[in-house]
TrEMBL record:
Record-annotated Fe2OG dioxygenase domain positions: 238-361
Family: Belongs to the iron/ascorbate-dependent oxidoreductase family.
SUPFAM superfamilies: Clavaminate synthase-like (SSF51197)
Superkingdom of this protein's organism: Eukaryota
Gene3D superfamilies reported for this sequence: B-lactam Antibiotic, Isopenicillin N Synthase, Chain
Organism, scientific name: Oryza glaberrima (African rice)
TM stretches of this protein: none
Keywords assigned by UniProt, alphabetized: Iron, Metal-binding, Oxidoreductase
GO terms of molecular function: metal ion binding; oxidoreductase activity
UniProt name for this protein: Fe2OG dioxygenase domain-containing protein
InterPro entries reported in the protein's UniProt record: IPNS-like_sf (IPR027443), Oxoglu/Fe-dep_dioxygenase_dom (IPR005123)
Amino acid sequence: MEIGLLVRTQTQPGWAPTTRGGGRRRPLALALGRLSSRRPVRCRCLAAMQTSPPPPSVRTVSIPFSDLKERDRDLSGKIEEGLGPNGLGIISIADVPGFPVLRKTLLRLAPKVANLPEDVKKELEDPDSRFNFGWSHGKEKLESGKLDTFKGSFYANPILDAPTTDDVLVRRYPSYCRTNIWPASHLPELEIAFKALGKLMLEVGLMLAHHCDRYVMQQGVGPYDGESLEQTIASSRCHKGRLLYYYPQQFSKQEEGGSVSSWCGWHTDHGSLTGLTCALFTKNSMEIPCPDSAAGLYIRTRDDKVVKVTFEENELAYQVGETTEILSRGRLCATPHCVKAPSSENASNVDRSTFAMFMQPDWDEKLKFPSEIPYHQELIPPNGTLTFGEYSERLVNKYYQGKT
């Protein structure tokens, strides 16, 4: 599972890009080329953390869409600042045509999905996919090991309703290869809005991936030994959208100043890029501003500090995932992040809706994991090779309940 994986990481970042030429698919491999001495890569560790005083608030690095769509424009400075070894692993894109309307159209449907009759939601569940398609609630584990009942999710592939017709693949990689489940009779507008926003976020993500490739290849670490990030995303059949609905929490004096991971636990995305929308808050079915300035997205920095990250309502944000850090040998870096619930007197009965678009390698893309990049060492043999499907499957096994 993508955004919900509560991944404890200790990483030594590292990245070797791939040449963009050649028609044959090659492994998404890690060349053991040299790392530039100009930018030492820091270790980081993820641990549960209580913060006092409140963490500082930091604005994302932002790129205008008009600049992003120019393939020959040099955006390396902003890419490095936002996604490089000293960045926050997140960047935002401003003024994307059509995005504000598509965002609100979809996010307004999240409470409607969560409030469908229980028997309808049961029909939308897909246990055989480990709840990676359709409705999911209370199936994912929090940091404590308890099941997460704070949020519900609706998953679908916004690009392909049926990624493959190969029954062997469907059985082998059900989290990616099974078909979408839509509430066609009860909420037909969901499919239209979900696909429209997901496709736009993929299109913009591909533009960003192109500039990420340009930046990585400027770092002097040698040519790609496989496919570029842009090619990897463009050729994949297993992108996944996740419409999230955070249930209202009752205000409690004891919650005030509580954990920054109170609404979504610390985790690191394991795909390539994750597109994010700014959250939409409602109270008693009325849209409201966020009722607590401390609520929202938090990120753990390279030097083990926690900061609150903000971007504008009409901006699209993108976070780096583990496989991009692996592919780039640390030139682009994934960061642990979490979500803090509002905890003020004005926050009672407030819910939150948002959407994440997970752009990731195809299930059969091969990843090589050298020992110096110790992601999930207990799951991967030293210098081992796994397909992305096998890699994500092992993570799902680690962090999710069984199929029943």
